[in-house]
């Protein structure tokens, strides 16, 4: 493991620290990512020919996102990465969440984009809102409302929100305190990030992973994904306000090949290496590379997965990020389990634990396995499908993480060489 020293990474002019007024005008402030939802193609066609993308016409979408660290100003990223037509947003608002689809009175703010209250996001592009003044507490839920005046097909978004998204009756209800609900979903549409203006010493932890990081099988609307529970541990138990957590898990994701993607290697730059403030990365991915070949997808070896890890490690280090490998959790009893797949998992976990190529190790396998049968999840931690943890399992994962890993980033060789 490398010696812990401060890493220095290049940043754009818009992301550099600035001195602003406030309680202490001498304190430098900067923009840091505080929430994320990795863009992907929608819908996710898991079965049947009749699954179609959601469509909206003259309707408002209201989405709830619980941030990690708060601050006095925020900005919101809208995304049309996988869109097939320009995304026309007639109005966009953000507010603090009250209950269900309703917002806290007096907190609604209009989102503007280069000063305009409406915006068109080109195919394959994303756009960041202008900063807005909104005092957002740590671990608070924000409501982002998008009014879509034209017929809009939701081909770009995030499939597994584990959070209720509300769709209105016809009309612009983007600023409404009480929201008229016509339908609901648990996917997110066109929303990929929230950033907060905060002290310049704040660092973001980006959690790269698959459904176990995305929170599959956790309770909807409860924020029980392991990254959420890690945020609670950091903020509530030890008061670490110098960190944010950005969840970049995609359910079904693989390191090497697409099935539900884009795969980790292809999305690394956008989702992990470039969010403002990104300093630490956790990697929990590979179980789908092992299991999905049993369902007719590309066969990969343990060595293939390890080589994928090595590329991710190298690219993270080039970007001056510290990267921690998380061991793959047990999956005996899951639909795609095989004895050969278990052998691959053990080989991959041995690399994570013992190769020394990651900057540190988070041993999720040890945290949730059944000591009496270590190829399976502990029953109390099993959601029932023998692959995804329960809420208690996700909590055990978060509690197992050594928070000292996030005290200082490791030495950045690239920065030193420069």
UniProtKB/TrEMBL annotation:
One Pfam family named in its UniProt record: Lipase_GDSL_2
Domain SGNH hydrolase-type esterase: residue ranges: 208-396
CDD domains from the UniProt entry: XynE_like
Keywords: Hydrolase
InterPro entries in UniProt: GDSL_Rv0518-like, SGNH_hydro, SGNH_hydro_sf
Tree of life domain: Bacteria
Gene Ontology molecular function: any one: hydrolase activity
Protein's name according to its UniProt entry: SGNH/GDSL hydrolase family protein
């Amino acid at each position: 493991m490398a010696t812990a020293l401060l890493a220095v990474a290049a940043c754009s002019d818009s992301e550099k620290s600035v001195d602003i007024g406030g309680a202490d005008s001498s304190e430098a402030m900067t923009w840091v990512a505080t929430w994320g939802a990795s863009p992907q193609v929608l819908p996710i066609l898991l079965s049947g020919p009749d699954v179609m993308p959601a469509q909206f016409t003259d309707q408002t979408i209201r989405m709830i996102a619980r941030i990690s660290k708060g601050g006095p100003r925020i900005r919101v990223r809208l995304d049309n990465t996988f869109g097939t037509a320009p995304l026309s947003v007639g109005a966009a608002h953000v507010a603090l969440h009250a209950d269900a689809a309703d917002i806290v009175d007096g907190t609604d703010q209009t989102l503007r984009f280069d000063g305009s209250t409406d915006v068109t996001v080109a195919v394959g592009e994303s756009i960041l809102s202008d900063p807005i003044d909104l005092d957002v507490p740590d671990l608070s839920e924000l409501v982002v409302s998008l009014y879509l005046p034209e017929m809009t097909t939701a081909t770009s978004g995030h499939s597994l929100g584990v959070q209720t998204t509300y769709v209105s009756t016809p009309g612009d209800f983007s600023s409404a305190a009480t929201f008229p609900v016509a339908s609901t979903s648990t996917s997110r549409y066109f929303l990929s990030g929230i950033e907060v203006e905060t002290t310049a010493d704040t660092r973001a932890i980006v959690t790269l992973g698959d459904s176990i990081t995305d929170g599959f099988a956790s309770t909807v609307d409860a924020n029980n994904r392991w990254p959420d529970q890690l945020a609670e541990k950091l903020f509530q138990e030890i008061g670490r306000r110098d960190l944010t957590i950005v969840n970049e898990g995609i359910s079904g994701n693989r390191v090497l090949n697409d099935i539900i993607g884009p795969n980790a290697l292809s999305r690394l730059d956008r989702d992990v290496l470039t969010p403002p403030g990104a300093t630490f990365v956790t990697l929990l991915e590979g179980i789908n590379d092992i299991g999905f070949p049993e369902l007719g997808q590309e066969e990969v070896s343990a060595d293939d997965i390890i080589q994928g890890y090595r590329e991710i490690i190298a690219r993270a280090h080039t970007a001056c990020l510290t990267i921690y490998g998380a061991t793959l959790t047990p999956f005996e009893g899951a639909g795609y389990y095989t004895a050969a797949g278990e052998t691959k998992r053990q080989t991959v976990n041995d690399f994570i634990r013992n190769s020394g190529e990651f900057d540190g190790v988070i041993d999720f396998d040890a945290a949730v396995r059944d000591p009496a049968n270590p190829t399976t999840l502990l029953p109390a931690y099993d959601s029932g499908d023998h692959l995804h943890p329960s809420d208690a399992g996700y909590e055990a994962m978060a509690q197992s993480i050594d928070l000292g890993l996030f005290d200082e980033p490791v030495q950045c060789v690239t920065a030193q060489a420069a």
